[in-house]
Every structure is written in C-alpha cells, then in structure tokens.
Amino acid sequence: MFLKNYISEVAGAVKSLLKGMKLTGYYFTHRKEIITQHYPEIKPQLPERFRGEVVMLHDENNEHACTGCTACELACPNGTIKIITKFDITPEGKKKKAIDTFVYHLELCTMCNLCVDACPTGAITMAQNFEHSVFNRNDLTKKLNKPGSKVRAGVE
Amino acid sequence: MPSLENITNTIHTWLNNHVSSTLATLIEMLIVALLAMGLFAILGLILVLMERKVSAYMQIRLGPNRVGFKGSLQTLADTLKLVLKEGLTPNGADKLLFNLAHYVVMCAAMLILAPLAFAKGFQIWDINIGVLYISAISSIGVIGILMAGWASNNKYSLLGAMRSGAQIVSYELSAGLSVLCIVILTGSLRISDIVNAQQNGWFIFKGHIPAIIAFVIFIIAVTAETNRAPFDLAEAESELTAGFHTEYSGMKFALFFLAEYVNIFVVCAIGATLFFGGWMPLHIGNWQGFNHAMDFVPSSIWFTIKVFGLIFLIMWFRWTFPRLRVDQLLNLEWKYLLPLSLVNLLVMTVVAIMGWHF
Prior knowledge:
heterodimer, A: alpha+beta, Alpha-Beta Plaits, 3 helices, 7 strands, elongated, B: mainly alpha, two-stranded antiparallel ribbon, 2 strands
C-alpha cells in the first residue's frame, strides 16, 4: 500500500511537470502567440477610454465650450487645474466673465477623470496621447485654450 | 576532410620536429589554455543570449532584439557594460576570500573541461579515471560559493551559500549513482572507452529502462548542482536578493555569471557523453548503410548538437517549473531520488550481468 502510494505520487508529479513543459514548449514553437508590441516603430492600439492627458475641444472656428465656471478646478483633487478668468465687454456694454487661460499641470495630474465629469458644458475631455517626456519640467505646464480662441456662442 | 583530430596531430608532429619535446609540451599547454579560455568566452556570450531568447519565447515575449541583428550582439554590449563597472569590495568583507571566490568557481568549472571528449580524438587529457575525476572536481565549485557567501559578511549571501552547500552535498549522491549505472555498462571510467562502447548505439537506447531512469535522475541532479531553477535556492532572487553574489559587482559578478553557464555546458557535455554517446554519431546496431550515412556528419557537430539539446532541456526546466522550498528540495533528494537511483543501480547491475543490454 505504501509502495503504491509512493509510485502514484511520483507518477502524478511527473505528469504535472510534463503538462507544464508542454505549455511552455507550445509557446516556444508558436511565435504568433507573442504579445509584445514593437512600441516605438509600431504605435500601440489604445482603448477608446484610455486616459493620457486632459485636452480642451476646439471646433473649426477656434471656439471652445469653456465658460470659466471653475467646476473642474474645484473638482480636481490635487490642484492640477488653474483657471484664470477675465471680463469681456458684451455688445450691450455689460461685463461678462470669460476664460483667459486654462492652466493644466500635467506633472500633477493622476488622470482621475473627475474634471471631465464635473464640466457642465463638456468643454474638456481625455486624450490618448501618452508620450509626455520633456527635458524641462516647465514644459509640462500647459495652456489648454488655444491663443485667440473664444467661447462658443450660446454656451452658458 | 580536415577533422579536429588531424589538426591536433599535425600541430603535435610539427612542434616535435622543430623544437625539443619539453618545449613542445609547454607550447601545447599554452594553446590548450588559450582554447579553453576562448571556449569560455564564446560559451558565455552564446549561452546568455540563448537563455534570454528561450526564456522570452517561452513567456510569449520577444527578448533582446535591438543590438545587432535580432539582438545577437546584446550579450557583447552587456559584457562591455560589466567591464566598465567598478568591482566593489564591501568594507566589512574578508578582502582576500571575497576577491578569491570567483576565481575558485571559475577554476573548478575550467578543470572539468580536461577529460571531456569534444570530438573524435580531440580531448585534453584522456585520464583513466575520467568519470571519477569529473564527479570529484564538480564538488569543488561549491567551495567558491561558500567562500563568496561567507566573505561577503551579509546574511543573504551566507544563507544562499549554506543552501548551496546543502544542495550540492545532497545531489552529488544521485548524480554519482546515475553516472555509476553507465560505468556498470561500460566497465571503465575512461571517457574514451565510454564513448567507444556506444559504437553500436547510445547507452540511453542500449540500457533499456534503467538507463532512461538514470538519465532523468542525472538531469535533475545536475540542474540542482549547477544551482539553476527550479533548484536556484542559492541565489533565489525573490528571497535572498542574489544569494551568494549579492555583494559582487562588475567583472567579479560577471565571472560568477559566466561560471554558471560554463557549468551548465560542462554538465550537459557529461550527460551527452554518458547517455548520448558523446561525439559518436547515431548508430543503430549493425545497419552498415545507416551508420555510414551518419558518419558523414563530423563528430564535433554531433557533440555540439547533443550538448545544446541538453542545454535547451535544462533551460526549458528553468522557465517552466516553480522553485522548490529548501525542505522540499532535500525531501526530493533523500526520499525520492536517492532510493530510486539505488534501486535503479541494482536493476542496471542485473541487466548488465544477465547481458540483457545490446
């Protein structure tokens, strides 16, 4: 009885080891299974919801939907966003609050998506660009609204 | 066709005709030493690259593929990096032993090359106790490892070295017993006799099941003796950082690394000699036509193919099996491999006495 147990133990061990070797042998002989991507030569296929950086959407008239409400600045957990506002003079001669500069500190951003959720007008979104390496860290502080852009008419 | 045997014989006669026999022997020794060192350097470069490629393909990766054609110069670049690094000796270390250990490991690996037959008539020293010499020298390497672990003055290094000692002392037994199975079939410890006895078929075929069991035990035991996964408890990077060579850097580390790969080559060469006929081509009994066809492939090529096949097998083990715990390691040897190899030795003796092998 002892001998039978002993031999079946050895046989079971050998069987399970051979099973493992069969799998690695299969991977060794089947190169099509390789999952490594040749990154710099071939750009990776990123999922649609990949979060790389925050961008502000501009249309062809260089107009965006940001009203300067600072909801994103308040929603940001680590002070990534700083909105500088100014006062435009409307044709009626009234002062109207508008965005001057949307300052975005990429080096502080954790890509948590809270600012995009907080935005009431859908002005900002997450982009797929992930190659953010720069030689000077000041380059990571970005202005998201393009120069000369203004808020789209009708967006309040 | 110029075979290695002809080349060595030509050099030998030319030297003896031109200089005195003492000087000729000295020059031959120098040539042999240079060849051995050259073999070491080439083996280091090839085997490290092979290991990285094999491991990559087994883990569904690509492996080194930037330096040179498909990464073929990667190990050369790594060597250059290691040469340029500082070889640091820690303050608390035993300076002499610390700086001696890697040479001991290298020398032990180098000494085993002596009785190996690389091709027909191409052997450094055809000593009449070749197999005994190999099993004796292969346990010297552990002294270097113990030295490195002790002299580093580091608890991880010491633990790794002690584990290595326990491991090699245990696994020497079953490796020796499985080698004895082949010695029983041959009746000689001389490597050239063992190879010549496989003229009409390799021992793994001639010795029936006992020879196959002996081969399996041998390959497990030598994997343990060379401190490779799944028996890499001596370095166990997840437990002991790098075990006995934690404190080593630069070329000192590179020598340990090189010694590991040379040891793999050496044990695979021994395995190929004992079980797969060394340089002997694939001969089947008395099939004259088949045997002659096989003889067209040079003996050095046969030897290389066999050795690299076994090296691939050992790499396959490394990248498939999980590491054993230290108590499991000793259980495996003393409760399973040792009884098995003792019984196997008995069966092999019966086979040899009754003449059941062909």
